[in-house]
Design brief:
The structure is a single chain. The protein is about 55% helix and about 15% strand. It has eight helices and five strands. It has a single domain, classed as 3-Layer(aba) Sandwich (Rossmann fold), CATH 3.40.50.300. It is an alpha/beta fold. Strands 2-3-1-4-5 form a five-stranded parallel β-sheet, sandwiched between helices. The structure holds ligand Z5A. The site of ligand Z5A has 26 residues, from helix 1, helix 4, helix 6 and helix 8.
Length: about 210
C-alpha cells in the first residue's frame, strides 16, 4: 500500500486535534503505520518557530515575516518528518499544512495569493496531500469551543472578521480542489463528524491498496 499525507484544516475549535487522534486510531486498526504531526511545528526548529509565531508578548510582526516563518518551519517539517516517513511507507497525519497559509496569511491577512503560490513552489515543490479534511465551523461555535482556555495567543486575539475571511478562504480553496479537500460539517456531534471521516479514510485506503 502506498503511503499518504492527510491534512486536517479549519478555524480554531473546529476539531482538528480531536479528529486527528480518531483518524490515527482508525488507520492503525486497519494495519497502517501512522505518524502524527502538526504545523507550525513538528520539528525542534519548527516548534521554536511556533513559539515565536504564537507569542502575544512579541511586538506585532509584519504579515510577510509571519508568512515566511510559516514556510521556513514547513521546509524543516517536510525534510525531517514528512518525506522520511512517506519514504518508509508510513502515513502522515498533519494538523494543518500549506492550505493554512493560504487561508490565514492569504485570505485572512490579505497577502497576495500569487506570492504564496511562489513560496509554495519554492518550499514544498510538488508534495501535495492525498486528502485534506476541512472541518467547517461557524464563528459563534468556534468561539464558544475555545472560550475559557486561558491566555489567548496572537491568532486567538484576532477579531471575528479575520476568522470570517479565513473560513471563507478555506471554502474557496475547497471549491478549487474538490477532490482533495473534503468539507465536513464540524457543527455536527463528534460521532457524526467521525462517521464522515471514516467514509473518506475508507475510500483512500481502497484507492491506495
Ligand atoms: N497558522 C497560520 O496562520 N498559517 C499556517 O500556515 C499554519 C498555521 C500552519 C496555530 O494553529 C495557529 O497557526 C492557528 C493558525 C496559524 N491559529 N489559529 N486560530 P493550531 O492548529 O495549533 O491552533 P488552533 O486552530 O487554534 O487549534 P484548536 O483551537 O485546538 O482547534 P482544533 O484542534 O480544531 O480543535 P480541538 O482542540 O480538537 O477542539 C476544541 C474543543 O472543541 C475541544 O474541547 C473539543 O472536545 C471540542 N469539540 C471538537 N469537535 C466538537 C464537536 N463536533 N462537538 C462538540 N465539541 C467539539
Amino acid at each position: 500500500m502506498s503511503a499518504c499525507l492527510i491534512t486536517f484544516e479549519g478555524i480554531e475549535g473546529a476539531g482538528k486535534t480531536t479528529h486527528m487522534q480518531f483518524a490515527r486510531d482508525y488507520l492503525e486498526k486497519q494495519g497502517v503505520s501512522v505518524v502524527q504531526t502538526r504545523e507550525p511545528g513538528g520539528t525542534e526548529l519548527g516548534e521554536r518557530v511556533r513559539g515565536l509565531l504564537l507569542d502575544d508578548d512579541l511586538p506585532a510582526m509584519a504579515a510577510k515575516t509571519e508568512l515566511m516563518l510559516m514556510f521556513a518551519a514547513r521546509v524543516e517539517h517536510i525534510n525531517k518528518v514528512i518525506q522520511p516517513a512517506l519514504e518508509q511507507g508510513q502515513w502522515v497525519l498533519s494538523d494543518r499544512f500549506y492550505d493554512a497559509s493560504y487561508a490565514y496569511q492569504g485570505y485572512g491577512r490579505g497577502m497576495d495569493l500569487a506570492l504564496i503560490d511562489q513560496l509554495k513552489t519554492f518550499s514544498v515543490g510538488d508534495l501535495k496531500p492525498d486528502l485534506s479534511l476541512l472541518f467547517d465551523l461557524d464563528l459563534e461555535t468556534s468561539a464558544a469551543r475555545v472560550s475559557g482556555r486561558g491566555k489567548a495567543d496572537r491568532f486567538e486575539q484576532e477579531q471575528a472578521e479575520f476568522f470570517s475571511r479565513v473560513r471563507a478562504g478555506y471554502l474557496a480553496l475547497a471549491k478549487q480542489e474538490p477532490e482533495r479537500i473534503q468539507i465536513l460539517d464540524a457543527c455536527q456531534t463528534i460521532t457524526e463528524v467521525q462517521q464522515g471521516i471514516v467514509i473518506h479514510l475508507a475510500a483512500l485506503l481502497k484507492e491506495k491498496s
